[in-house]
Amino acid sequence: MALRSKGLLLAAVVAASTFGSGAAWAAQCGNNAGGFEAWKQQMTAEARSRGIGQRGLSALQGTRYATATIRADRGQKSFKYSLKKFMQVRGASTIASQGKRLKKQHAKLFANLEQRYGVPAGPLIAIWGMETAFGKFLGNSNLLSATATLAYDCRRSDFFTGHLMAALTLVDRGVISASTTGAKHGELGQTQFLPGSVLRYGADGDGNGRLDLVRSRADALASTANFLRAHGWRRGAGYQPGQANFGAIKGWNAASVYQQAIAIIAKQIDDG
């Protein structure tokens, strides 16, 4: 699983406005496990001062340095492929064929989402398939440990510290728990949201009054549609490269091959 942008700049701005600027974090980052426990104590104090409650603080104290997360963060390769190779590796033809079936199977859900957010089924299904094979592979890493590890790691400490604070807020609110699992970069749910994006764009798609991006496909897809709308999606406009809505797809993921693949797969699904 590779790190997606998920609106990296916007998410960083959200984190900064909610929890203070990244430059204000005092906890000392590190490049190996050696300083993690000391950092954790410093970060717990900072989190408390920024309004994180006892449930979130206890969850932070229970985190462990995630070596597998660091290994994955250093080893991202697929985004360097050509578009053709990327689509082969990521199973684009299978996503498109299964996506057409899912569009028919859940026609009412996708019609409701398009009415509410203006986003058609194709891009939502393409993202859903690309991220988790339609909910089959959600990741088995402890979400808080993965996020805490990346917040501690000096490579992108400021960015992931904002997401860590968001994750602890979600724990306080009961949206996730200390044992919640996700992908190796701390992404959650059927379309793989980073914690700050869950906090900002999470939407109750099934109307049950709870947010569950893991077990509820409606919540996951509504949140994805909400994200795309917030990133400039225009109802009825095209989403291929050069068209009005391609920019919203760029907001979802910073990699050019990913953006193009989503647009191609989505068109295949929407064209039926």
N/C terminus separation: 28 Å
Task: Specify the CATH class.
Answer: Mainly Alpha
- Can you give the helix content as a percent range? 55-70%
Order of helices and strands: HHHHHHHHEHHEHHHH
Q: Figure out the total of helices.
A: 14
Largest sheet, in brief, is:
2 strands, antiparallel
Structural class of the helix and strand makeup? Answer: mainly alpha
Whole-number tally of structural domains: 1
Q: Mean pLDDT, nearest integer?
A: 91
Instruction: Note the overall shape.
Output: globular
The number of distinct β-strands equals 2
The CATH architecture can be named as Orthogonal Bundle
Low-confidence segments, given as residue ranges, are: 1-23
CATH superfamily: Bacterial muramidase
Strand content: under 5%
CATH topology (level 3) name = Helicase, Ruva Protein, domain 3
- Any idea what the radius of gyration is? 18 Å
Arrangement of strands in the largest sheet: 1-2
Task: Write up what this structure looks like.
The protein is mostly helical. It has a single domain (27-272), classed as Bacterial muramidase (Helicase, Ruva Protein, domain 3). It contains 14 helices and two strands. It has helices at 8-19, 36-49, 54-61, 67-74, 83-89, 92-105, 107-117, 121-132, 143-152, 157-173, 195-201, 217-230, 246-252, 256-271; strands at residues 141-142, 181-182. Helix 7 runs parallel beside helix 12 (217-230) and helix 12 (217-230) crosses helix 13 (246-252). The model is unreliable at 1-23 (pLDDT under 50).
